[in-house]
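Page 37, continued from 36.
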C-alpha cells in the first residue's frame, strides 16, 4: 500500500510545486480542493469535478455526522463509495461549523457540547470523537479538532484558544494513531489569529508533534486580505519545508495566487460553487455577474479561453436567462464552470512554478482575475 508522502519537486521563490502521494492517488500541488460539504460538491456531478482536474475534494465532518450519520456512511462502505469518488478526500474536524452554526454550545477542556442546527439534537465533539468520525468516513487526510474564533479578537482570547487547540492536537494524534488505517494522514492546525508571537508558538509546538502535514487555520474569518497575508508570512517560516502546508477556507483567485507566492500548497473554499449559485462566474477576463441585464442578448460564451463545456459552449444570454428565471441549470452551469476555472488556475500556477516564471504570472493575473468584467466586455 502506498504510504502518505510529500515530494517537493520545484521551488520558484517561495512558491512550491510538489506531489502528495496517498493510497487513493496523487495530489498535484498547489492544489485546490472543491468543497463537498454533505458528500456532494453543490450542483456539480462527481464526474464533472473529476473532469475539471481536481485530485482531491473536501468533506465536512460536522454536516456528515449529523446527516446521514458517520455510522451509516461506514455501513455503506465509507465516504468514497457513498459519493462515488475514488480519489483522495480530506475531511475537516467539524470544529469550525460547531462554533459558527450550532445554537447552544458549551466549550470545555474535554470538547464542545452543541445542539444540531438541523433538529436541535445534542452532541459532544471531542478530539477523540472527531477522529473516530473521520475514520468511519474513511477520509485520506484528517484534521485535528481546534477552536477557531472570529477576528478581530484580543490577544488573551486568541492565546487561550490557541493553547486549547494545541492540547487537542496532542489528543487528536493519540486517537489517530490508535485508530487510523495505513496510508491515512493527520494534519495539525496552526492558530494564533493575527498575532505573530502566537502563530510562531503554535507552529513550533505542532511541528514538535511531527505530523504528516500542517494547516494554517483561523484566517478568512474577518481579518482582511492584507492581515491574512501577514499571518502567513509570520507562520510559514516555522513550518517544515518538506511537508505540505494547507490554508483553510481560502479563497478568491487573488488570495490563492498570493498565498502560493508565500509557500502554501493546498486550499479549499466554497466560493466557486457558492458564487455560481448566485450568478457569478470566474473567468480569465475577471468576474462576470450573469444577473446583469447587459448579458441578455450577448451571444458570446462565458469564457473563450476555457476548455470547460459550460464556459465554452453556452452563451451568456442563455445563462443570464437561466439565472434570472431561477432555473437550476443556471446554477449548475456556473458552478461547473467555476469549479473548472479554479482547477485551470492551479494548473497554470503549477506550470509557472515549473518554468521559473511564477512572479511574472503573479503580476499578470493577480489583479485581473479579481476585477469585475469591464463594461462592454
Amino acid at each position: 500500500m502506498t504510504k502518505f508522502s510529500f515530494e517537493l519537486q520545484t521551488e520558484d521563490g517561495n512558491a512550491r510545486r510538489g506531489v502528495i502521494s496517498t493510497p487513493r492517488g496523487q495530489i498535484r500541488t498547489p492544489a485546490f480542493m472543491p468543497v463537498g460539504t454533505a458528500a456532494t460538491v453543490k450542483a456539480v456531478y462527481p464526474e464533472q469535478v473529476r473532469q475539471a482536474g481536481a485530485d482531491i475534494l473536501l468533506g465536512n465532518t460536522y454536516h456528515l455526522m449529523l446527516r446521514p450519520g458517520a455510522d451509516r456512511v461506514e455501513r455503506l462502505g465509507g465516504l468514497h463509495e457513498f459519493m462515488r469518488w475514488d480519489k483522495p478526500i480530506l475531511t475537516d474536524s467539524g470544529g469550525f461549523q460547531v462554533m459558527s452554526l450550532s445554537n447552544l454550545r458549551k466549550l470545555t477542556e474535554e470538547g464542545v457540547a452543541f445542539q444540531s442546527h438541523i433538529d436541535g439534537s445534542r452532541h459532544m465533539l471531542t478530539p477523540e470523537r472527531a477522529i473516530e468520525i473521520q475514520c468511519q468516513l474513511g477520509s485520506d487526510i484528517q484534521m485535528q479538532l481546534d477552536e477557531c474564533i472570529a477576528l478581530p479578537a484580543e490577544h488573551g482570547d486568541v492565546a487561550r484558544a490557541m493553547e486549547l487547540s494545541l492540547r487537542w492536537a496532542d489528543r487528536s494524534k493519540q486517537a489517530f494513531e490508535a485508530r487510523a488505517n495505513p496510508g491515512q494522514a493527520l494534519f495539525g492546525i496552526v492558530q494564533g489569529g493575527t498575532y505573530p508571537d502566537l502563530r510562531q508558538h503554535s507552529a513550533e509546538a505542532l511541528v514538535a508533534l511531527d505530523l504528516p502535514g500542517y494547516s494554517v487555520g483561523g484566517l478568512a474569518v474577518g481579518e482582511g486580505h492584507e492581515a491574512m497575508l501577514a499571518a502567513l508570512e509570520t507562520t510559514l517560516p516555522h513550518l517544515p519545508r518538506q511537508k505540505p502546508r494547507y490554508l483553510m477556507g481560502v479563497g478568491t483567485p487573488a488570495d490563492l495566487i498570493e498565498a502560493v507566492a508565500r509557500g502554501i500548497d493546498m486550499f479549499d473554499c466554497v466560493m466557486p460553487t457558492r458564487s455560481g449559485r448566485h450568478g457569478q462566474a470566474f473567468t480569465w477576463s475577471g468576474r462576470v455577474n450573469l444577473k446583469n441585464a447587459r448579458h441578455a442578448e450577448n451571444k458570446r460564451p462565458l469564457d473563450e479561453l476555457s476548455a470547460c463545456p459550460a464556459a465554452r459552449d453556452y452563451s451568456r444570454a442563455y445563462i443570464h436567462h437561466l439565472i434570472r428565471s431561477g432555473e437550476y441549470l443556471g446554477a449548475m452551469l456556473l458552478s461547473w464552470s467555476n469549479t473548472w476555472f479554479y482547477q485551470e488556475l492551479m494548473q497554470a500556477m503549477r506550470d509557472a512554478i515549473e518554468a521559473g516564471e511564477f512572479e511574472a504570472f503573479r503580476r499578470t493575473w493577480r489583479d485581473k482575475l479579481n476585477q469585475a468584467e469591464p463594461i462592454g466586455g
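The CA atoms of residues 187 and 211 lie 6 Å apart. Flag for discussion at group meeting. The first strand starts at residue 5 and ends at 12.
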